[in-house]
Amino acid sequence: MTEPTRTLPDADPRVTFTGLDHHALAARTRRWGWLQYAGYRQVAETPFLWTWLAVAFGNPLLYLAAMGLGLGAIVQGDVDGVRYLTFVAPGLLAATVVSTGAQFGTWPIFGGFKWQKNYLAAYSTPMEPGQMALGETAAITVRLLLQSVAFWLVASLFGAWPSPASLLALPGVMLAALAMFTPLMAYSATIRNEGLQFNFVQRLIVMPMFLFAGTFFPLDVMPPYLQWIGWISPMWHGTQLGRIASYGLPNPAWLTAIHVLYPLVLVVVGQWAAARAFAKRLVG
To answer: Please, are residues 272 and 246 in contact by the beta-carbon 8 Å criterion?
Structure first.
């Protein structure tokens, strides 16, 4: 004799046998989907924690030893009124963090559509494409912050920072990195088949910035026909903001405003373009 099914008169019909209110979960995702996706991206990076630590602390150690102490021992006199190590440290910080932003704006985004298909999986939930793009930006912001702090700590061991106020260099450098990440994320979302596109990005965009954006010497000592590379590159603007915060680089107020506004505009436009590209790719 089977036991009769009990009916709960006050039960909400939206609640399934699992006890979860799926309407409430969907509403939460529609509101906080970007944060949920950012959390997923952080968890997905957990297996690579030790690799990240090795890179985050190893890169500044090698850069500062080679360029700050090695090349710095050759450079005679001060640069911009400070010793060469103090001058070059903000540039190396910006170059490292901006390069990371460029790296994560290319292959990982492409792979999310082409190989891992995590964007397709997320789109099967109430999450919107724009939330995925914003979640990617939120996740990379955390990574860039941790990498910037790691670089600052290593550079402190070398005596590269004149004072703790140099910590104010980190926000400007991170802004420059996001100014690289968001436009590249938008571009990568449009790529459907792998080819040489990202190799061109690294060799024709990121590498020239690294060499000619005032990382190792003041931009104004370069030939005028090369200075434009610095003017349009987020890396130079981040470097200059870092030097202003680190050792008080003399800079007109209007130019400092440009150093902030130019990468900020790139971030806003890049994020908007990424949201549209994600929607077009997923919705069709």
So the answer is: no
| Helix extents (H) in the chain | 22-44, 49-63, 72-74, 84-104, 107-114, 118-123, 129-157, 169-188, 197-201, 207-212, 224-232, 234-247, 253-283
Tokens of 16: 């399934």
* Residues 40/49, Cβ–Cβ less than 8 Å: no
Domain ranges of the chain: 22-283
**3 state SS of 282:** helix
Asked if residues 96 and 55 have their Cβ atoms less than 8 Å apart, the reply is no
Distance of CA 174 to the CA centre of its chain: 7
Tens-place pLDDT, residues 183-200: 999 999 999 988 889 999
Picking from 277, 226, 218, the residue whose alpha carbon sits closest to that of residue 249 is 218
The yes-or-no verdict on residue 27 having pLDDT over 90 is no
Q: Is 213 exposed, middle or buried (0-12, 13-18, 19+ CB in 10 A)?
A: buried
Q: How far apart are CA 71 and CA 245, in angstroms?
A: 23
Alpha-carbon distance 195 to 209, whole Å? 22
Q: How many CA atoms lie within 13 A of 146 on its CB side?
A: 13
Alpha carbons 231 and 70: distance in angstroms, whole number: 28
Q: Is 80 exceeded by the pLDDT of residue 30?
A: no
Q: What is the C-alpha to C-alpha distance for residues 130 and 136, in angstroms, rounded to an integer?
A: 10
pLDDT at 23: 72
Instruction: Answer left, alpha or beta for residue 215, where phi above 0 means left and psi between -120 and 50 means alpha.
Output: alpha
Burial of 212 (0-12, 13-18, 19+ CB in 10 A): buried
Task: Quote the mean pLDDT of the chain.
Answer: 87
